[in-house]
Amino acid sequence: MTVPAPCPLLLVEDDPAIAETVTYALAREGMITTHCLLLQDARRQLEHQAYAALILDIGLPDGSGLDFCRELRQQAATATLPILMLSARSDELDRVLGLELGADDYLGKPFSPRELVARLRALLRRSRQMTAGPGAPAPEAFVHDLAGQRILLHGTALALTRMEYGLLACLLEHAGRILARDYLLDRVWGVRADSADRTVDTHVKTLRAKLRQVDGRHEYIATHRGMGYSLELPQQP
Ligand code: CA
């Protein structure tokens, strides 16, 4: 039995031979993999596409996978993205650090493709159970598929950028409550607030347009002048 991935997997690995082996092994299991050589490419990919999981090498030409892992965990859009770390050194310190920084699992090189597939399957299974279990409530118009990193409105998956996804996930989590721009900037973008920053407003605008495409009868995101935004659900008839 293969485990179909709801979204592609993202692999960040600068060794082409390893990348090819991993991609091939996963393709045999019916899983599609996007491969990046650099962290900067991975960052761009994650902004534009939702991924079911990330396979992340530690030693990369433009930075450390450990730092990248920490960065992803601080952003709402990728806070729960399943991450499997790879390291050339079967170094205990790397393993401990990786897991402490929020990686879900760790594999030391060299590893067999079969072991990688088994670990990844377990990771995706755990991630789905978390989504299905308690702790991921969402107002009924919306379904938040954490494992697939996507949100459905009335059963239709919204085509969101990474930041729009993070923003909506955050609003859903606190539905009905007013969230200040500063709070959203910190939670979704992981940056300190700057009062002149229009980032949140710009993304609320594009997010509203996408929600309207699926359901034009209700304005889901309310603006509270001088305070922030809230997610408002339609009144029950
Ligand atoms: Ca490497």
Percent of residues in helices comes to: 40-55%
What would you report as the Rg, rounded to the nearest angstrom? 19 Å
Order of strands across the main sheet: 2-1-3-6-7
Quickly give the CATH architecture of the largest domain. Answer: 3-Layer(aba) Sandwich
CATH superfamily of the largest domain: Response regulator
Q: What profile does the largest beta sheet have?
A: 5 strands, parallel
List keywords for this structure.
elongated; 237 residues; 12 strands; Rossmann fold; 3-stranded antiparallel beta sheet; Arc Repressor Mutant, subunit A; alpha/beta; single chain; 5-stranded parallel beta sheet; disordered N terminus; binds calcium ion
TL;DR?
The protein is α/β, with parallel strands linked by helices and 237 residues long. The chain is built from 8 helices and 12 strands. Strand 4 and strand 5 (63-64) form a beta hairpin.
Topology:
Layout: E1 9-12, H1 16-28, E2 33-36, H2 39-48, E3 53-57, E4 59-60, E5 63-64, H3 65-73, E6 83-87, H4 92-100, E7 105-108, H5 113-132, E8 142-145, E9 150-153, E10 156-157, H6 162-173, H7 181-189, H8 199-214, E11 221-224, E12 228-231
Helix pairs in contact: 1-5, 6-7, 6-8
Can you put this structure into words, describing what you see?
- The chain is an alpha/beta fold.
- It folds into two domains: 9-130, Response regulator (Rossmann fold, 3-Layer(aba) Sandwich); 133-231, Winged helix-like DNA-binding domain superfamily/Winged helix DNA-binding domain (Arc Repressor Mutant, subunit A, Orthogonal Bundle).
- The chain is built from eight helices and twelve strands.
- The chain has helices at residues 16-28, 39-48, 65-73, 92-100, 113-132, 162-173, 181-189, 199-214; strands at 9-12, 33-36, 53-57, 59-60, 63-64, 83-87, 105-108, 142-145, 150-153, 156-157, 221-224, 228-231.
- The strands form four sheets. A five-stranded parallel β-sheet has the order 2-1-3-6-7, with helices on both faces. Strands 8-9-10 form a three-stranded antiparallel β-sheet, with helices on one face.
- α1 (16-28) links the parallel β1 (9-12) and β2 (33-36).
- The longest helix is centred in the middle third of the chain and has 20 residues, at 113-132.
- The relative contact order is 0.11.
- Residues 1-6 and 132-138 have low confidence and may be disordered.
- Calcium ion is lined by residues 14-15, 57, 59-60, 88.
